[in-house]
Amino acid sequence: MTRKFFGTDGIRGLANTHPMTPEVAMKVGMAAGRIFTRGEHRNRVVIGKDTRLSGYMVESAMVAGFTAVGMDVFQFGPLPTPGVAMLTRSLRADLGVMISASHNAYTDNGIKLFGPDGQKLSDARESQIEALMLNGLEKGLAPAPTIGRAKRIDDAQARYIELVKGTFPRNLRLDGLRVVVDCANGAAYKVAPAVLWELGADIVAIGVEPNGANINLECGSTAPEAMCAKVREVRADFGLCLDGDADRVVLADEHGRIIDGDQVLALIANGWSKSGRLKGGGVVGTVMSNAGLERFLSSLNLKLVRTAVGDRYIIEEMHKGEFNVGGEQSGHIVLRDFCTTGDGLIAALQVLAGIAREGKPASHVCHLFEPLPQVLQNVRFRKGAPLEDAAVKTRIEECRKKLNGNGRILVRKSGTEPVIRIMAEGDDEKTIQAIVNEIASAIEEAATP
């Protein structure tokens, strides 16, 4: 069945435009509240958000929806997505909500839902919510005496800070390390600097002045150049930048060189396998994971299991194969020992633990393999289905033949925005750059009205 509201990562779109309207948000609250009302106790839902201007509008609408069906609402204010997932379980809530469009511009917003176990909802659950949104909401309104209550939870950030600090080895400290942290003017603008400082680091914080419109604006994981430049400017030992809801992280060594998610997976897998902590005999990555990572893991007698792009698919495979480490090249790192979803700050702490333990520069500790040349390009389109165009299909097939088995091409539609993502990987960078340019030109031609 075609879904009308939910995509690959909850509901997302342009704020105040369908489906990200107050009406839809209220209906999500009413429908999800109906479905997750369990037992005779006072059912509760927790709500976190990032710093987008539209967050106030969406939050108020959802509070109205939840209270209308008798659920009590605990409002956290700005808090990372993984913090919402953690506190959903910690506070024994029946449902968790994160209002965020992650790495998108402030004009977008989104809704992510978590079950009482802190896991993102399944497709079946989301379809169930959609069905109720489209028919039958008026039957579930609570009688006047049982309308839900809403209140702010002032210590939500402090709770999350302590949970995150608890993932860092107790025998280690960050004393003597200067760390640049870029919070993308997003959900982690308070908690991330606090965690790093309390663990002993000398902090240089940027992207910590949100105004409702500057989230991800020339900062954060989608624009790591600002963090890298600051690392070089202040001669820092390490840098990290989060995205708008802090479930993703991009790192840099003392030279301002990027450490991507593949290198993070390599470092954690290497360390955890030596200590006997790694489960599943390897890690879970995606079709975007660099072949260099696969070769490195193979040298350790570990495997890389690939999934489709998206932390949902990674988490599903991790459960299936009993893995405890998985992630994406883009910086979504899932460590099941600590959390149920990606947490950029916790991932960064595991890398910092490796640096502190070895007492060597990040450039030595964090670059464990030489990645194969990989070229990525996004092509934005307004409407239609460019990947269904015959000329585009032909061009992609021609380009695959040019590689002659010595590389990979991946062309896919983004699940969160109107963008076609092109990736080519191979031993010769000039060849794969030319291939990406060819495919991008074909798609642009097909997408032009």
Descriptive account of the structure:
With 449 residues, this protein is α/β, with parallel strands linked by helices. Helix 1 runs parallel beside helix 2 (55-68), helix 1 crosses helix 4 (123-134) and helix 8 crosses helix 11. It has a 6-stranded mixed sheet with strand order 1-5-4-2-3-6, sandwiched between helices. The two termini are 29 Å apart. The chain has helices at 22-35, 55-68, 81-90, 123-134, 156-165, 191-198, 225-234, 261-274, 291-299, 311-321, 344-358, 362-365, 390-403, 429-447; strands at 11-14, 44-49, 72-78, 95-99, 108-114, 150-152, 178-182, 202-206, 238-242, 249-252, 258-259, 282-286, 303-307, 325-327, 333-335, 374-380, 407-413, 419-426. The model has no long low-confidence stretch (mean pLDDT 94). The protein has 4 domains: 11-154, Alpha-D-Glucose-1,6-Bisphosphate, subunit A, domain 3 (Alpha-D-Glucose-1,6-Bisphosphate, Chain A, domain 3, 3-Layer(aba) Sandwich), CATH 3.40.120; 160-258, Alpha-D-Glucose-1,6-Bisphosphate, Chain A, domain 3 (3-Layer(aba) Sandwich), CATH 3.40.120; 259-343, Alpha-D-Glucose-1,6-Bisphosphate, subunit A, domain 3 (Alpha-D-Glucose-1,6-Bisphosphate, Chain A, domain 3), CATH 3.40.120; 374-447, 2-Layer Sandwich (TATA-Binding Protein).
Describe the SSE topology.
Layout: E1 11-14, H1 22-35, E2 44-49, H2 55-68, E3 72-78, H3 81-90, E4 95-99, E5 108-114, H4 123-134, E6 150-152, H5 156-165, E7 178-182, H6 191-198, E8 202-206, H7 225-234, E9 238-242, E10 249-252, E11 258-259, H8 261-274, E12 282-286, H9 291-299, E13 303-307, H10 311-321, E14 325-327, E15 333-335, H11 344-358, H12 362-365, E16 374-380, H13 390-403, E17 407-413, E18 419-426, H14 429-447
Parallel strand pairs: 2-3, 2-4, 3-6, 7-8, 7-9, 12-13
Antiparallel strand pairs: 1-5, 4-5, 9-10, 10-11, 14-15, 16-18, 17-18
Helix pairs in contact: 1-2, 1-4, 5-6, 8-11, 13-14
